[in-house]
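Q: Given only this backbone (167 positions), what sequence would you predict?
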């Protein structure tokens, strides 16, 4: 199903190198807003800094793909020392295609992490890569986002599908 994520986590910090290794995932495409930080927040949370460091130490290749423009994405990616693709046009596959090419790795070893069913999960399924769905860091307040989240509700993963962090 196009709106069904491959794996489900409560938050990005629950995704571990051990899990990725078990699933033969060597690279991650990362969403930005409400995945690594709150929506439109220019600051990088300490938890995201630590998680990115853990992934890098484990040898996981990383790239951010965002539908946002360079003034939003570049400063954030620079703070994390992570490559990025702006204006990814998710759920279309253009951003994913460019990111996979820049990662230099076969797409069967790539997964993408994101918080939206209609952009992140759908885009992964259209591209043929695995999706790691995470629940949004915090609810968005704008009317268009609230409407989109309401439309996503029937497709949201059930609690029994959430993969718990491996210690």
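A: Predicted residues:
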């Amino acid at each position: 199903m196009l709106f069904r994520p491959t794996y489900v986590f409560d938050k990005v910090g629950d995704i571990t190198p051990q899990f990725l290794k078990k699933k033969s995932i060597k690279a991650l495409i990362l969403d930005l807003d409400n995945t690594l930080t709150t929506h439109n927040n220019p600051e990088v949370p300490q938890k995201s800094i630590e998680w990115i460091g853990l992934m890098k130490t484990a040898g996981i290749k990383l790239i951010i793909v965002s539908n946002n423009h360079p003034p939003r994405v570049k400063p954030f990616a620079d703070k994390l020392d992570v490559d990025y693709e702006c204006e990814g046009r998710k759920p279309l596959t253009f951003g994913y295609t460019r990111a996979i090419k820049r990662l230099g790795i076969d797409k069967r070893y790539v997964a993408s992490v994101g918080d939206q069913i209609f952009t992140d999960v759908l885009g992964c399924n259209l591209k043929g890569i695995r999706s790691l769905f995470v629940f949004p860091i915090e609810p968005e307040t704008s009317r268009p986002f609230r409407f989109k989240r309401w439309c996503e509700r029937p497709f949201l993963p059930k609690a029994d599908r959430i993969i718990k962090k491996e210690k």
